[in-house]
Amino acid sequence: MVTTNVSVLVVDDEQEICELLYDELSVDGYLCCTALTGQDALTKLKSETFNVVLLDVRLPDISGMEILRTINSSRYDTAAIVINENADPDVTADLTAAL
């Protein structure tokens, strides 16, 4: 069990994925929060501090790439881990461009 106060924001438009990651990470001692939309994620990133963001690249309202760029440009203390359900070459190219 983790004994640190590492905070994690899980961003995915599938509620089941958010709940699964929230439950698993919380059991291990991580402080978790979820967002089902890109706008909700941006709002939470502006008002709270997170050590890690688990970020789906395909969201219904705002591109995960846009959120990644926001994290990279303004939240230097936040690491982002991109999650994607398929190996889409366009996503890889977008990730490279976002970094």
**Oligomer classification:** single chain
What topology, given as strand order, has the largest sheet? 2-1-3-4
Extract low-pLDDT stretches.
Answer: none
- Output the helix-strand order: EHEHEHEH
Strand element count: 4
The percentage of residues in β strands lies in 15-25%
Helix content: 40-55%
The chain-level mean pLDDT equals: 86
Biggest sheet layout? 4 strands, parallel
Number of helical regions: 4
Structural class: alpha/beta
Explain how this protein is built.
The protein is 44% helix and 20% strand. The chain has four helices and four strands, in the order E-H-E-H-E-H-E-H. Helix 1 links the parallel strand 1 and strand 2. The longest helix has 13 residues.
Task: Kindly summarize this structure in a few lines.
With 99 residues, the protein is of the alpha/beta class. It contains 4 helices and 4 strands; from the N terminus they run E-H-E-H-E-H-E-H.
Any key phrases for this structure?
globular; 4 helices; alpha/beta; 99 residues; four-stranded parallel beta sheet; 4 strands
Task: Annotate the secondary structure layout.
Elements: E1 7-11, H1 15-27, E2 31-35, H2 38-47, E3 52-56, H3 64-74, E4 79-83, H4 89-98
Parallel strand pairs: 1-2, 1-3, 3-4
